[in-house]
Write a structure and sequence with these properties.
450 residues; Jelly Rolls; globular; binds heme C; 3 domains; 6 helices
Amino acid sequence: MLRAAILGSGVGFVVACGGGTAADPGESSGGPAMTGGTEASPATTGESTGTGELPGTGDPDDTGTPGGPTYAEDVAPILATHCWGCHVEGGFAPFSLVDYDDVAPIGNAIVAETAGRRMPPWPIDSTGACQNFADARWLTDDELATIAAWVDAGSAPGDLAALPEPPAPPTLGEIDGTLVLPTYTPSAEPPEHPFDDYRCFVVDPGLAEGGTLVAFEVRPGVVEQAHHIVLFSLDSDAAVQQALANDAQSDGPGYRCFGDAGVSDTRIVGAWTPGVPVVRFPTGTGVALPPAAPLVVQMHYNLAGGAQADDTAIDLQIDPTAAHLESVIFVDADLAIPPGVAGHGEQSVTTYDGAPVDLLAVFPHMHQIGRTMHVEIASAANTTCAADVPRYEFHWQELYSYTEGVRLLPGDEVTLRCGYDSTGREVPTTWGEGSGDEMCAVVFFARPVQ
Ligand code: HEC
């Protein structure tokens, strides 16, 4: 069964990212819903990274073919744009990729990770075959070739005195409210989540009037453990009361929540992943926040590097003139995923019966065994690919903004295909909010056709 609705409020939708850091099984293959290839994660196969160690590039004295690409001139500018948002000292990634001496010894791993499109993390296809996205963390084929050619030719340093500066991170500008999270020391939830804590906090942004949220900036308390944040609005008094009650019944600040915000009458109003300090909705648009109500901030802490006290804050920017985005949600809730299947596909089709809208951003969502997702919109005239996620990763869920909107008209048929790898599961997996349950859902942020 597939349901679709335009939902201004009253959505009990579920979001989570989860799991440990290293135990993610490789990509699955085959099956009707599979859109991706059969490549496997190097962490589990060792194929592209030898024995699991990051391999060297050979003779350390061999510093390149004369006239060939160099680190300073050719490679560092690419890394500055696409990697240094995370791979810097004190950044989210576990090691820096700034200094030549850090980069050159792991050249082969960098080639493997970039060519395999696992780094930078950006699970949605951005080749142009299925839409284009704003601020895509996506290397061009030329950039991939430059990195590979540099490693092939011996990783020459070039003029290291002339390394590029990292691009200045975007800034939020005017701040209209701030979500100040209480100080909280996360703790993992073994055995299911040996490295992760999912915690919901009820936080008042101090917006007496509510308003339209157009952008927000996350200031993580501890950069290397803040993996994922989802903001939910509480759209009724009952929802506010329920969230406060959850908090009161739980020890310490906030309460555990894997899937949704743990209450009904909520909407996703924003999602953040590391490396993107400022999240901005498409120009001139935003998401309505109810007046004088707290929000629920769901933090996913990854604790692979140990747990530290956190005091994240999130600055909000409100623009009363911005157009409201609505959520248009399609789900395939009738999931029956048999255990032990590397490439199981689920598919469903629904006829859209809402008002004409332009879809401006897309948020694909599955849980931990979700591997691929494909969303298509068929009108009488043609079929449009709306999202293709060949390497879905619950670790890296985000809201992708289209560079050009996708129109959705009443009568259009929306096909949702989700692929799963249930290897290791012993019982069937069905739809649900728990971390062992699955989902197949896509949330679009949309504007009425003008
Ligand atoms: C949004 C943050 C982010 C960006 C941007 C990013 N990385 Fe990473 N990278 C990580 C994290 C986090 C890890 C640790 C493993 C994991 O969690 O997947 C990692 C791991 C790696 C690894 C080791 C992979 C392995 O398992 O052996 C390599 C190599 C790498 N990154 C290269 C790059 C390169 C090259 C770029 C830019 C072209 C880049 N990364 C951009 C976050 C990022």
